[in-house]
Amino acid sequence: MEGDESKNEPTSDNRETGGTVGPERASLMVELRLATDADVEATLADLCVHMSGQQRDLFGEKLLRYVRKPDRDLMVAIHGGQIVGLVCVIEQAVVPGTFPEEVGERLRRFASCTQLLVHPHLRRQGIGTSLFSRLENWARDRGRGGCWLVTRRMADWYRNHFDYEELGRIREKGIEKVIMAKKFE
Length: 185
Ligand SMILES: CC(C)(COP(=O)(O)OP(=O)(O)OC[C@H]1O[C@@H](n2cnc3c(N)ncnc32)[C@H](O)[C@@H]1OP(=O)(O)O)[C@@H](O)C(=O)NCCC(=O)NCCS
Description:
Blueprint: E1 15-17, E2 31-34, H1 37-47, H2 53-68, E3 72-79, E4 82-90, H3 101-106, E5 110-118, H4 127-141, E6 146-151, H5 155-162, E7 165-172, E8 175-183
Parallel strand pairs: 5-6
Antiparallel strand pairs: 1-2, 2-3, 3-4, 4-5, 6-8, 7-8
Helix pairs in contact: 1-2
The structure holds coenzyme A.
Coenzyme A binds near residues 129 and 151.
């Protein structure tokens, strides 16, 4: 099935080290791989210590859905045996009804990204760039026309480092968020 990369049995095909070529190279050597069920517990333990028990349970359930469903994935970055970063991707997410109609039209064949997170002690060492580049390649491999995400504070990061453009703004629970997207070449 398209998008199924034998998630519960990682192979050399879905493992990458940060010391490869191009933008997936991290300053800090990390292994990037598609997560398995077993990685979810480790992710919660290593990266989600700031969450309450209930938040962690809910987040764990969400991450398991990314691991198990064939149209999505959880990617993790590993360093020194610890999970130091994660990002989630969906091949064809439903565009929220809060998006302007014309924006929804533009995102029709795009993948979408959520939950990009790097351990606070290891930021600015290229891990976020490695994870996000890997996510874009995942989307390209599945024939997606581009990628979109919604962000509260990091619009400039996506704009400056990945050529994303702002397509509009939405308000969720009183908080303004920016819709960022990139059409692949
Ligand atoms: C956003 C985030 C994932 C970036 O991860 P990272 O590993 O620190 O990113 P990188 O080291 O790959 O950064 C690449 C570049 O962005 C810059 N950068 C990193 N974080 C930045 C920030 N908060 N603001 C501005 N620039 C930033 C780096 O300096 C680097 O620039 P350079 O290549 O010119 O040196 C990380 O800061 C994070 O987890 N933030 C909290 C969660 C979050 O906001 N996620 C995004 C939700 S949309």
